User: What shape does this take?
Amino acid sequence: MPKSLTVVPIPAPVQTEPFDLCATLLGCLRAARETLRDGDVVAVSSKYASIAAGRVRNLTDVAPSPRAHELARRFGMDAAIAQLVVDEADHIFGGIELGFLLTVKGGVISPNAGLDRSNIPSGQVVLLPSDPFATAESIRAQLQTEAGCRLGVLLSDSWLMPGRFGTTGVAIAMAGFQPIRDERGKSDLFGNPMAVTQIGMADALAVCAQVVMGERDEATPFAIVRGADVQLSDAPLSTNDVAIPWRHCIYIESLTVGMLPADETCAK
Assistant: This one.
């Protein structure tokens, strides 16, 4: 029988300048009277981690290049934002005339390379962590030393699912547990072998955490996900452990190399 899952929100002070992330998290756990247990997965807002590391830029300090100006003109963007996207994105696919570019950053398809202008003073932008997997591992190591138990850690963010209204959670990085559960070769309810299913455990837990962490003024950048059936592991993780190759991604491959001509898509 599946285990019950509990998600515990952990409030924290609003921050706008670099600070000690782990010391703050430990203090918030004490203030909330929460004790970490073996198997807990601690979710940390990637934005909060970025602010802690000083990954905040003032738009007035950004000098847009000719390419950034062209992107800004074409897609109705602030030129400084366009420049930061150019600097941060691993790849830019295109954009829409609402001020957004579709990008890949750290294996995650996202608007504007994950840049965030919410919950930060006006005129500033929060970038994604520069090395999110190292950040997650550092948090895990310090928490395990303090708590004396084995834990998982994930850096969570919000993203837009293709074709759907609203944001949901996504794991930018993780440490201490296997992020993917491979179901291939196992049998379903009727004995049929599973052919392609792999469960994104880290992303699923990020969704759970995001529900209690919120998006607006909740000031809850931490959450404990308790009771998750994860496989704890000390193996180092990277983008390669969670990001599918583009040629296997139905969204990217279908809308690029595998895109049908318009007359074929309309054929009945």
The mean pLDDT is 94. Residues 7 and 225 are 5 Å apart (CA to CA). The chain has two domains: 6-51+129-238, 56-127.
